[in-house]
Amino acid sequence: MIGRIWGAFNPPATPKSKDALSFGILGAANIAPLALLGPAKTHPEIIIQAVAARDRTKAEKFAKANSIPE
């Protein structure tokens, strides 16, 4: 059971395809990692490319903490 919980919150990264769809996140809220980053990590055709927020420094911190390029 602990393994399933761990896997839900820390999904394994999968290799991304060359023609993967790039997404951007609007808002650096606390729900984004669980709702968007986790599922995108496990899907081979999705890349989270950028993040935007009202506060630029918050968006930059969020992107850096979650390995988002822009």
The profile of the biggest β sheet is: 2 strands, parallel
Number of helices: 3
Order of helices and strands: HEHEH
Nearest-integer average pLDDT: 85
Classification by helices and strands: alpha+beta
Q: Compute the gyration radius: what is it?
A: 13 Å
Strand order of the largest sheet: 1-2
- Given as residue ranges, the uncertain stretches (5+ residues, pLDDT < 50) are none
| Strand proportion | 15-25%
* Amount of helix: 40-55%
Per the principal axes of the C-alpha atoms, what is the gross shape? flat
**What is the straight-line distance between the termini?**
36 Å
Total beta-strand segments: 2
Task: Characterise the protein shown here.
- By secondary structure, the protein is an alpha+beta fold.
- It contains three helices and two strands.
- The protein has a two-stranded parallel ribbon.
- The protein is flat and about 40 Å long.
- The protein starts with a helix and ends in a 5-residue tail after the last helix.
- The mean pLDDT is 85.
Task: Give a short summary of the structure.
With 70 residues, the protein is α+β, with helices and mostly antiparallel strands. The chain has helices at residues 2-9, 32-42, 56-65; strands at 21-26, 46-52. The chain is built from 3 helices and 2 strands.
